[in-house]
Every structure is written in structure tokens, then in C-alpha cells.
């Protein structure tokens, strides 16, 4: 029987994406045109230590996503993996005795798009891109499906711990928002900024 420790041992994470979608290919990104995903979180109680893709013992992570062309986002779909796909890991180590598995799920009260499970852009920022969303994919542990953020039909990624350690692997990419229409509701180049939280349940 599994034990859900999430009530006590919740790992909080802010996922922030800032990027610029360029209107033509081959343009060199100027300062401020790079995409950044910033993770901040923490673990309480005797669960696991969290580190990031760089291997540093910190739950804070910065993932730089590429600047992409508007036309590439327009032709991208969730089914074909989006564009600007960038992998990242959430690493567990030093997990308490008795914990053999862990699972992670994502949510976002402010930006979750329940239509397609992606993250909406924060359109309140200056020079915000329009109709550009961020999609997450499972990228390991025998899973490659989309992460449906905030939806009940999402299948959380599960990791079996080996000597108290395990790795959740994901990838983020850009896709058109569900309201995108190439004729009447086009993509507008600009910055993308969004966030989500992840929580880890231990068994």
C-alpha cells in the first residue's frame, strides 16, 4: 500500500519561462532574447534531497531555452514535439529509508490551459508574445508522453529509487496556443513568461 507524503513533504517549484519568438529565422538573439526557466523549491522533513540538471545540490534551476522563429512555432504541434525542445531533470538523492518510489505532477493555478494541458503565456508582461504556449513532455523512466498540467487525466512520471536516488526527466517546448489561427488569430512575436509548480509524492 502506497503512502502519500505530499501533505507534509511537498516540493514547491516555480517554473518561469522568458523568451522571445522572432519573426524570421536566422536572426541573432540580442541581450534579453534568451529563454529562462527558473525553478525554486524546497523539501521539508526526512524525504529526499533535490538537485537539478547541473548536478548542484539545489532545487533551484535555470534552464535556457532557445530563441525560435515565429514560422517555426506556427508549424509546431504537440504531436510533433513542439519547437525549441529543451530537456531538464529533477534529481532525487539521499531519500529516507522506506521510500522506494516517487512520482511528480505539475500544476499552475494562473497559467494552466486545461484545453490542451499546456502553459499559457503571461500577457501582462511588456512585449508579450501572443498565442505562444509552453508544453512539457516526459523524457525518461519509460515515458515520453505530454505532461497535462493541472488536468486530472495526467499520468504522473514515476521513478523507482535506487539506493535512495532517482531522476525525473522532462523536456519543455514551444507550441501555438489553442486559440491560434493562421488567418484570424495569428502568433505575435514577443516575450514568453509563465510558471507552474511541481509536487512530489513518495511511496
TrEMBL record:
State the superkingdom. Bacteria
Q: GO biological process: what's one of them?
A: cell adhesion involved in single-species biofilm formation
Gene Ontology CC terms, in alphabetical order: pilus
Which residue positions does the secretion signal occupy? Answer: 1-29
InterPro entries noted in UniProt = Adhesion_dom_fimbrial_sf (IPR036937), Adhesion_dom_sf (IPR008966), Bact_Fimbrial_Adh_Pro (IPR050263)
Q: What keywords would UniProt list here? A: Signal
Q: What is this protein called?
A: Fimbrial protein
Whose protein is this, by species?
Answer: Salmonella diarizonae
* Taxonomic lineage of the native organism: Bacteria, Pseudomonadati, Pseudomonadota, Gammaproteobacteria, Enterobacterales
